[in-house]
Amino acid sequence: MTDSVKYFLPEERIPRTWYNIIADLPEPPAPVLNPGTKQPIGPEDLAAIFPMSLIAQEVSSEREIEIPDPVRDVYKLWRPSPLIRARRLEAALDTPAKIYFKYEGVSPAGSHKPNTAVAQAFYNKEAGITKLSTETGAGQWGSSLAFAGSLFGLEVKVYMVRVSFNQKPYRRALMETYGATCIPSPSEETACGRAILAEHPDSPGSLGIAISEAVEVAAQNADTNYSLGSVLNHVLLHQSVIGQEAMEQMEMAGDEPDVIIGCAGGGSNFAGLAFPYIGAKLRGGAAPKIVAVEPAACPTLSRGSYAYDFGDTAHLTPLMKMYTLGAGFIPPGFHAGGLRYHGMSPLVSQLMDLGEIEARAVQQLGCFEAGIQFARSEGIVPAPESTHAVRVAIDEALAAKEAGEAKTILFNLSGHGHFDMQAYMDYFAGKLEDRDYDEAELQRSLAELPAAE
């Protein structure tokens, strides 16, 4: 054991391949279905909005997929990201537990999202695409794709969930600084946006609605492709660099995690850290407890149904088998905008169904309390989404203290909160409250799940 705080890898240790957990699953993922025929879709069904290279990654069962050199060259701007031992937080908690976090806030956009944004921009540029459309919740994904688009000469249009558009002006400014256009969703620019505004003029928006708008734009314009920041297999694939680096860095620390934690909205940062560890377990390795933390106001894994559903509100996407609250579910406007999604990645959902991971739902006041305690100990202000992981890491450390067990806890600090300070200001002013979803609204939404048989 060492007394180090930070564990760094040199640039040459940036992973050369992405890890694909599909290769190690005990059974293949459920097929993605055409909503009209209920038959599995083929590559041609996705070619209107994705390049074939990403479609191939989406369905690949190869364990390792090579990272192109131009992508690795951009990764060098911030990767490998540091692994940090939270020694000051451990002391503040007076816990025998050891707490480590993988810090993804060192990227130019301030979160883990560029790990896939750069890859997606590269493959689209290679395919001759000149424009990308996308959605964003809190703005981390939108700013990351804007950053990647600026590097590869792509025009980027971002539909930002309206409540977040109003809450987070500096995220919008960051996207515009990188050259992107940012539009509050639902908007008057698309047919689905106009339809929603006609029925709900004061709609706060949702990720499902913003996805509908971005997909509509991509499907109707030959020069435009759609880019998604979470949920899909190829997105989680690209994020696997996080866990691969963490495994090497934990070896440097002479330690092995007993508990692995990540916040979960669509599943990308959680999978990025957890999937390499789950893959090792499935191949006969160690079996840590793995916890996906979600907001109590949008508890997809905890309260959703494992069923086929659309990925968007306007039903423009294929049907995916996943834990879902129903495509029509609109969560309350709590501050962790990146976790306000009705569904969950099909791969994360499958692992939940297999019992390989567990879910925990937490309220936002406890999360901000944990984020502030973390900031006052470790100096990093976490994004509201990341405070969910911090909350459960602290809870696990306190449980270890209560039990007198020296657990090793590893969590993903998926981004900093420097563009989310209004949320902290609202917390200090007593303006935040714990929000619960509407049970009747949830049941109505679940009752409208499409029949997939």
3D structure, described in words:
The protein is α/β, with parallel strands linked by helices and 453 residues long. The protein has helices at 43-46, 52-59, 69-75, 87-93, 114-126, 140-152, 162-167, 169-177, 191-199, 207-220, 233-239, 241-252, 268-282, 300-303, 346-353, 364-378, 384-403, 421-428, 439-447; strands spanning 6-7, 17-19, 64-66, 83-85, 98-103, 131-136, 155-161, 181-185, 224-226, 259-263, 289-295, 305-310, 319-324, 358-362, 408-413. Strand 10 (259-263), helix 13 and strand 11 (289-295) form a beta-alpha-beta unit. Helix 3 runs antiparallel to helix 5 and helix 11 packs across helix 13. The N and C termini lie far apart (55 Å). The model has no long low-confidence stretch (mean pLDDT 95).
Q: What does the oligomeric state look like here? A: single chain
Number of beta strands: 15
Q: State which percent range the strand residues make up.
A: 15-25%
How many helices does DSSP assign? 19
Structural class, from helix and strand content? Answer: alpha/beta
List segments where confidence is low: pLDDT < 50 over at least 5 consecutive residues.
Answer: none
Characterize the overall form: globular
Average pLDDT for all residues: 95
Q: Please outline the major beta sheet.
A: 7 strands, mixed
What topology, given as strand order, has the largest sheet? 1-4-5-15-10-11-14
Helix amount: 40-55%
N-to-C CA distance = 55 Å
Computed over alpha carbons, the radius of gyration is 20 Å
